[in-house]
Design brief:
The complex is a heterodimer of chains A (801) and B (299).
Chain A lengths: L19 H5 L16 E7 L5 E7 L1 H4 L4 E6 H7 L20 E2 L5 E7 L2 H10 L1 E6 L6 H6 L3 E9 L2 H7 L2 E9 L11 E7 L4 E6 L6 H10 L6 E4 L15 H14 L3 E4 L2 H7 L5 E10 L5 E13 L8 H4 L13 E10 L13 H19 L3 H8 L8 E2 L5 E2 L4 H12 L1 H14 L4 E16 L10 H6 L7 E8 L5 E5 L8 H13 L6 E4 L20 H28 L6 E4 L2 E4 L2 E7 H10 L13 E7 L15 E16 L5 E11 L6 H20 L31 E5 L16 H18 L10 H16 L1
Parallel strand pairs in A: 1-12, 10-11, 14-15, 20-21, 27-28
Antiparallel strand pairs in A: 1-5, 2-4, 2-6, 3-5, 7-15, 8-13, 9-10, 9-12, 13-14, 16-17, 18-26, 19-20, 19-25, 22-23, 23-24, 26-27
Chain B lengths: L6 E3 L4 H11 L3 E4 L5 H6 L7 E4 L9 E4 L2 E5 L4 H6 L1 H6 L1 H6 L6 H6 L2 H7 L5 H9 L2 E6 L2 E6 H4 E3 L2 E2 L6 E8 L5 E8 L9 E10 L2 E10 L6 E2 L1 H5 L9 H17 L10 H29 L3
Parallel strand pairs in B: 1-3, 2-3
Antiparallel strand pairs in B: 4-5, 5-10, 6-7, 6-10, 8-9, 11-12, 12-13, 13-14
The chains are: A alpha+beta (801), B alpha+beta (299).
Chain lengths: 801, 299
């Protein structure tokens, strides 16, 4: 990559976010602000009140006669007009956008009302008479595994885990359940669909975030060739954090409804629908065994994982389970790993993307077992971590499961974190308090060291099938992204992204990157972030997930800009009578290197290219628009040994949480929280710190407050924000953020993703800290005050007995 | 989350409002701040035929003081309890609990009378009124009557108001010299419905507790007065060892008096534990506050 990061020095600077003024003035254009087609009818969905029930019949007559109602459709109506939603694994339960014959989770759509407005649609929806025959529901993942509701059961072995476990000085075991929690963006789902019967094609406006593999899945379920599904995203997003990948099922629902009814339709999800049926993280139960040498060296890991993906295997699941496959050993050098992964169906809402995606669940198990190992060995957890960290000279480091860690200095990050909290001093204070007999407020210190993968390899999901099964299909790999860049006749630049930002500030950063390459100011660069699958340069891996913007999305902009810069240099070389290689682009000028007064403005060059193409150097293609694609390196399909480089870049995060637990109430207070990050080159440091803070809040939630809870019958108990307790600004502790920088050799700008690391680390660090404070080993998340108090009561009773 | 169809009426006079209520009875619902009612409408949990919006009625936001009573109009916004200096001085207990009612922005809309008529067993203002021994004035075409706080809160979301009655005034005993007050609650997040709350009004005389009322909220189907718990404090100097013992005993009696329920968030045992802790806390607050306020010479 030529030129990126040099001339204007915009990369690494912190210009104001170009997105903010629109948002602060209340001029954002979100899905519900759009009226792209006149006369769209409104949808309301009838949803199953039962977690599992046979649908014996649906009487739609009263609803159809309700004022303003155009149509009432059932699952059978939609199934006749389309096809099931494709799943990643053959043999998964057939899934339709609207249930056919059987409803398998509370909240599953069973009928669609089309009416003049949403009020009338909801009035009619109440009149749809569904005859349900309730069936037994399975809610608990372990019971689901026992009952045989297993979609995929795979075992993996790397090194010689059995021998290492047998020979170990000590081994420790633990079970670490990680319940469901959800992203809860401010803006819920929304879809506007317009089926054009003239050409049998569908245009959809939806606040979908990618990945665009799901465009293919949606087109398949709509019975359309992909070229006849035009998907457009709104200019602004009220956040996603992963969950809006799940909009694709509703794209199918609304698309087929528009097809059947012959009118455009719009569906804006409300919060009750969102909490019940949009999606959440998986519920994972991890049994882990770790073998240690006497000096604290980690010798082997054995995982037995049961992953609840809900009633259907909604694409891209079971990706949550395999996203971290190359990083199952975390930050440690251990070479012997055994894994059993079972994916199970329950009668709960299908799961999907949620910030951290598989990381929080993995690291809760791994970092808690490291803590237990240290306790068993009588060593300090910091020393045990340090003993096992991948050393700086080992990079690029191939993990036993196939991951390829690009760069880092893990021990230095750990030292930074330990120094920042005064670890020794804290341990002294803790010992003094314990000795002093002041038992009312207990101090705890928790550590988490996590490798944060970014830029997912699209091929890792195929690990859910055996290598023989994989061989029957086509191999999948890589992670490509495209961007289009054009210079107008006055020298201004437009960039079109396919990274579908959800609030992160991609437009700001893309302008910085293009400005540096072209010698312009970001103000000269207008960035459009709306996705239009008929317009944008995209691939199946396009979209907003796996923290891929800094590493690969921005790199596509840099590559397109570099190609445009090359063309401008050729034109300038012709004008300035020098070799193109001797031309530099600085301050809106093309200049001869070393002769600042010999130059020509880019505006003049652009004008010539547009107005007078005959003047261009011989053989140069006219036009100043470039579309470029880049793909992260080293992302091969899984090999026959089930090794996979599941991500292209790997940042490193060390968290130290210092907590105080009030014994009388069980309340956890966070006294200090330090996080040290190494995410390579930082493109916009202020946005980086915003991402880290947001990621921390997203991890603190399930650690302390948030959980999506169903009762034994599968009824949702957290159906509103009264019971689903999101961490808000008053609950999120002050975070102290420190940085290190070892640029990635694998990404063009040296940047790594960093928006998910603290979601992965915070639950582990906080759980370690609270367990350290209380001397209780088996606390389950979220660590709410009542739950902690109950655990202490149980402990007190046990001790008395 | 759209409400079912309803008729909307916005009377300009009290007479018109009362006539509408008389006409529709059970089918009518009074809309004040709407902080609780509007979500219930949107969730289709409430299905009134007629919404009677009383925001245009004159005079329902006024505050008067005299004869040891502070009278606040039913439409006084909750935020006034927080922000008005004279109100804070006259109604320290209501002011102490105000920051816990919902959220900053909802208090700009939510009304004092609406909160009392709504009779949510987890409401802060019902607990404050009960603890102080206040009352409300309700009016209908049949006439007007006062209802004491102990009769007002019947059951969760059920008050003693008849369907044709409108709550128009709230009568709070004004804070008198040598009285002190305390309020505390525990919620998982600030602004959430409390898992438990307690309030105390205490008169101190000659270094001992002369009178005391201890109220408990969110731990039964309505706010409760822990009278037995309060009685053990009378005559005690809470600064002494015997006082400590009395406070502990009161807290323990309060915990026993609570009738909490178990839900997703907390068990009965945890809520009783909170009642005990919070009771101790508010009794102590009341004791100290009474001393401070005696020094100030009262309102």
């Amino acid at each position: 990559m030529s030129g990126a990061g040099a001339p204007g020095g915009w990369i690494g600077a912190t210009p104001h976010r170009v997105e903010d003024e629109t948002l602060l003035r209340g001029r954002g254009r979100f899905i519900d602000d759009l009226s792209p087609v006149p006369g769209a009818m409104h949808l309301a969905l009838v949803r199953s009140p039962f977690a599992h029930a046979r649908i014996r019949g649906i009487d739609t007559s009263a609803a159809a006669a309700s004022p303003g109602t155009l149509a009432v459709l059932t699952g059978a109506d939609l199934a006749a007009a389309g096809r099931p939603l494709g799943a990643v694994i053959r043999g998964a339960t057939e899934h339709h956008a609207v249930a056919v014959d059987v409803a398998r989770y509370a909240g599953e759509p069973v009928a669609v009302v089309v009416a003049r407005d949403r009020y009338l649609a909801e009035d009619a929806a109440e009149l749809v008479d569904v005859d349900y025959e309730p069936l037994e529901a399975v809610v608990d993942p372990l019971l689901a595994a026992e009952a045989g509701h297993v979609v995929s059961d795979r075992s993996f072995r790397y090194g010689d885990p059995e021998a290492a476990l047998a020979a170990a000085h000590a081994s420790v075991r633990g079970r670490f359940p990680f319940g469901r929690w959800t992203a809860a963006p401010v803006e819920c789902f929304g879809v506007i669909a317009d089926w054009d019967h003239a050409v049998d094609s569908l245009t959809v406006w939806a606040n979908f975030q990618g990945p665009f593999t799901l465009h293919t899945v949606a087109a398949g379920a709509l019975g359309l060739p992909a070229a006849r599904l035009r998907l457009v995203t709104p200019p602004d997003s009220g956040g996603s954090f992963g969950v809006k990948a799940g909009v694709f099922g509703y794209i199918v629902l609304a698309g087929l409804t528009s097809k059947i009814c012959g009118v455009p339709v719009r569906w804006i999800e409300d919060r009750v629908e969102h909490l019940a049926a949009s999606g959440s993280a998986t519920h994972r139960v991890t049994d882990v065994e770790a073998a240690f040498a006497a000096d604290g060296e980690l010798l082997a890991l054995r995982y037995d994982v049961v992953e609840d993906v809900g009633a259907y295997l909604r694409a891209p699941e079971p990706a949550t389970l395999y996203r971290m496959h190359g990083s199952l050993t975390g930050a440690y050098t251990v070479r012997n790993v055994a894994v059993r992964n079972r994916v199970v169906h329950t009668n709960r809402c299908p799961t999907g993307l949620n910030r951290g995606f598989g990381g929080p669940q993995l690291y809760l198990a791994l970092e808690r077992i490291m803590e237990r190992g240290a306790a068993r060995l009588g060593l300090d957890p910091v020393e045990v971590a340090r003993r096992n960290l991948v050393p700086p000279e080992a990079f690029p480091y191939r993990t036993p499961t196939g991951g390829l860690y690009d760069s880092g200095d893990y021990a230095a990050c750990l030292d930074d974190a330990i120094g920042a909290v005064d670890y020794e001093g804290l341990r002294r204070r803790q010992a003094e308090r314990r000795a002093g007999g002041d038992d009312r407020r207990r101090l705890g210190i928790g550590l988490a060291c996590v490798v944060e993968p970014s830029i997912s390899n699209m091929g890792y999901i195929s690990l859910a099938e055996t290598s023989e099964e994989r061989a029957r299909g086509r191999p999948k790999s890589g992670n490509a992204e495209g961007a289009t860049l054009a210079m107008n006749p006055l020298g201004g630049v437009t960039v079109r992204l396919s990274t579908v930002p959800q609030g992160q500030g991609h437009r700001t950063v893309a302008a910085q990157v293009a400005a540096d390459v072209l010698g312009l100011s970001p103000a000269d660069v207008e960035v459009q972030s709306e996705m239009d699958t008929h317009v944008n340069a995209w691939t199946v891996s396009s979209g907003n997930y796996s923290s891929r913007f800094a590493g690969i999305g921005a790199a596509a902009v840099a590559e397109a800009a570099a190609q445009l810069a090359g063309k401008l240099r050729r034109i300038a070389g012709d004008v300035l009578e020098c070799a193109p290689a001797d031309v530099e682009l600085v301050d809106g000028q093309a200049r001869v290197v070393g002769q600042p007064d010999r130059g020509v403005s880019l505006r003049r060059l652009a004008g010539a290219a547009h107005w007078n193409p005959e003047s261009l150097p011989a053989g140069l293609e006219p036009g100043l628009a470039v579309t470029a694609f880049v793909s992260a390196p080293n992302l091969d399909p899984p090999n026959d040994a089930d090794e996979v480089a599941s991500s292209a870049a790997h940042g490193f995060v060390v968290d130290v949480a210092v907590v105080e637990v009030n014994i009388a109430t069980g309340e956890v207070g966070i006294l200090d929280y330090v996080t040290v990050h190494d995410a390579g080159t930082l493109l916009h440091p202020r946005l980086v710190d915003g991402q880290i803070l947001g990621s921390f809040a997203h991890g603190l939630g399930p650690a302390l407050l948030e959980q999506t809870v169903h009762d034994d019958e599968g009824n949702l108990l957290t159906g509103s924000f009264m019971d689903y307790l999101c961490a808000t600004s008053t609950e999120v502790a002050d975070l102290r953020i420190l940085h290190r920088c070892t640029p990635s050799p694998f990404t063009p700008l040296g940047a790594k993703g960093l928006g998910e690391g603290n979601t992965m680390s915070a639950p582990a660090a906080l759980a370690n800290a609270v367990c350290d404070a209380l001397g209780i080993d088996d606390l389950e998340l979220p660590l709410t005050a009542p739950r902690i108090w109950e655990s202490l009561s149980v402990k007190a009773r046990t001790t008395e007995a | 989350m759209k409400p079912p169809p309803f008729r909307y009426v916005r009377p300009d006079s009290l007479e018109e409002a009362l006539a509408t209520l008389a006409e529709h009875g059970d089918g009518a619902k009074v809309l004040a701040g709407g902080c609780s009612l509007v979500p219930m409408l949107n969730m289709r949990l409430a299905r009134p035929e007629v919404l009677v919006d009383v925001n245009r009625l004159g005079g329902l936001g006024e505050v008067r003081a005299g004869n040891g009573t502070v009278t606040t109009g039913a439409m006084l916004r909750q935020s006034a309890l927080e922000r008005s200096t004279p109100l804070r001085r006259a109604l320290p207990l209501a002011a102490a609990c105000a920051p816990y009612i919902g959220h900053f922005v909802t208090r700009n809309r939510g009304t004092v009378g609406g909160s009392l008529a709504h009779a949510d067993a987890r409401g802060e203002l019902p607990l404050a009124l009960l603890t102080l021994g206040g009352s409300v004035l309700v009016e209908s075409q049949r006439g007007r009557r006062g209802i004491g706080a102990e009769e007002l809160f019947v059951y969760h979301f059920t008050s003693a108001l008849a369907p044709d009655e409108l709550l128009t005034e709230v009568r709070w005993p004004a804070a008198a010299p040598s009285w002190g007050f305390g309020f505390a609650e525990m919620a998982q997040r600030h602004g959430d419905y409390a898992l438990a709350m307690a309030a105390c009004a205490l008169r101190r005389c000659d270094g001992a507790v002369a009178e005391v009322r201890l109220g408990l909220g969110a731990v039964a189907d309505r706010p409760l007065l822990a009278t037995e718990a309060a009685s053990v404090l009378v005559g005690q100097d809470l600064d002494g060892a015997a006082g400590d013992e009395a406070v502990r005993e009161a807290a323990s009696l309060a915990a026993a008096a609570a009738q909490p329920f178990e839900d997703l968030h907390a068990s009965v045992a945890y809520r009783r534990q909170l009642v005990s802790l919070l009771s101790e806390q508010v009794i102590r607050q009341g004791w100290l506050d009474a001393d401070d306020r005696a020094g100030e010479g009262g309102p």
